[in-house]
Amino acid sequence: MIVSVVTLILTGIPLKFPEFDLSKFIIIDVLGGLQNSTLIHRVAAVGLIIVGVWHLGIPFSRSSGWRDFLLMIPRPRDAKDLLQTISFFLGKRASGPKFGRFSFIEKFDYWAVYWGMVIMIGSGSIMWFKEYFPKTLVRYSSRGPLR
Ligand code: HEM
């Protein structure tokens, strides 16, 4: 996942801002041209898709998979833990809350990454197969400021 995301960023950002010298350097000098850089972007995208789909199989692949998935779902107790952690940091409590298998911090981290992956794969696929999607959706799938 790290390799795919770093590659996607390094090949995607110069595509978005081709007017910068650094973008030209990356696309032309480092990657050998636009065709190569968009090909590498797509290869890394397939890597990210494989990781994302693979990850969905974890609940079925081991006995602790479903248990961990269910324990990863945010619950009202997480909001309480957050408030207690803040009061602990502010010195209003002697100790922080006791966490279960996953703390609210781990849950936040986990869902932020997975949600980000869904967004990137979703919007990337729309750009990739734009002929099958309405024009407005394609325009809004482009990352960063719209042009
Ligand atoms: C961390 C993940 C990713 C980042 C940061 C990223 C970034 C970018 C950026 C900045 C562009 C420039 C073009 C524009 O926005 O108008 C772009 C283009 C594109 N991206 Fe990504 N992308 C990512 C993941 C993906 C994925 C998962 C896919 C496919 C499923 C994808 C497919 C495309 C396609 C088809 C283009 C159009 C340019 C081309 O022909 O290569 N991207 N991406």
Tell me what the structure shows.
The structure is a single chain. It contains eight helices and no strands. It has 147 residues and is mainly α. The protein folds into two domains: 1-71, no CATH class; 73-147, no CATH class. The protein is elongated and about 60 Å long. It binds protoporphyrin IX containing FE (HEM). Protoporphyrin IX containing FE is lined by residues 5, 8-9, 12-13, 15-16, 38, 41, 45, 48, 120-121, 124-125, 127-128, 142-144. Residues 5, 8-9, 12-13, 15-16, 38, 41, 45, 48, 120-121, 124-125, 127-128, 142-144 line the site of protoporphyrin IX containing FE (HEM).
Biggest sheet record? none
Cα distance spanning the termini: 29 Å
Percent helix? over 70%
Query: What string gives the helices and strands in order?
Result: HHHHHHHH
Topology, please?
Elements: H1 2-16, H2 21-30, H3 34-56, H4 58-61, H5 63-72, H6 76-89, H7 104-128, H8 135-141
Could you write a compact summary of the structure shown?
This protein is an all-alpha fold and 147 residues long.
